[in-house]
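Inverse folding, one chain.
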């Protein structure tokens, strides 16, 4: 199967071609992960043959990255139906089988547990501590967690969790935040690994 021979750069290119948010909703902190970062997360997570859940999947990029890397089963959870419809289209175009669940991550109670949770959750700039609540849910449902989180919260994760910083990125701010200015703005984001509670 061709998915097994993808290199990170090739995966990044496929992911960058995906359809993004049509009208990003600031209240839900809808920021799309750049293809290169999503690809690296998927390589580091090693999802081959394992089950993966993507919490706050948005337009599906992390879920799709893990499926393309050979995950056995992938579930994407998202409360915004409009975003989920884009995720479905993205997966369909690539012929990938992913299960999409339209619900609030925080009240979601899956009957199964997962090998890996991946997430680029709201950082909590609109609703305080959303990042913590997403990480808590991820630890509740998966053995290993790979999360993109604001570097400003780094010390909190390191102090209170079994956490490790795998990478730090400059994450381009979403268009609605910068298009009035000439220069594009960036924010520091860590890829944090958490060993789960399961
Ligand atoms: N994972 C995607 C989207 C990141 S933006 C990517 O990496 O590109 C964060 C996503 O979380 C948005 O799609 C937003 O709609 C979703 N979200 C925010 N609050 C949520 C909640 N309570 N339950 C489910 N999804 C939520």
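Residues assigned per position:
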């Amino acid at each position: 199967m061709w998915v097994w021979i993808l290199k990170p750069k090739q995966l990044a290119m496929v992911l960058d071609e995906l359809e993004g948010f049509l009208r990003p909703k600031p209240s839900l902190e809808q920021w799309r992960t750049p293809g290169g970062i999503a690809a690296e997360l998927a390589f580091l997570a090693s999802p081959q043959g394992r089950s993966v859940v993507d919490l706050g999947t948005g337009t599906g990029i992390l879920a799709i990255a893990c499926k393309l890397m050979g995950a056995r089963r992938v579930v994407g959870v998202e409360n915004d139906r409009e975003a989920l419809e884009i995720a479905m289209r993205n997966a369909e175009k690539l012929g990938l089988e992913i299960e999409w669940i339209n619900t609030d991550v925080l009240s979601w109670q899956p009957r199964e547990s997962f090998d890996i949770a991946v997430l680029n959750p709201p950082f909590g700039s609109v609703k305080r501590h959303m990042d913590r609540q997403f990480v808590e849910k991820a630890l509740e449902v998966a053995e290993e967690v790979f999360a993109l989180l604001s570097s400003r919260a780094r010390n909190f994760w390191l102090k209170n969790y079994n956490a490790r910083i795998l990478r730090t990125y400059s994450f381009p701010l979403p268009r609605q935040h910068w298009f009035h200015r000439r220069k594009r703005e960036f924010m520091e984001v860590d890829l944090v690994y958490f060993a789960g509670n399961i």
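The first strand starts at residue 51 and ends at 55. Residues 8-14+31-195 form a domain with the Rossmann fold fold (CATH 3.40.50.150).
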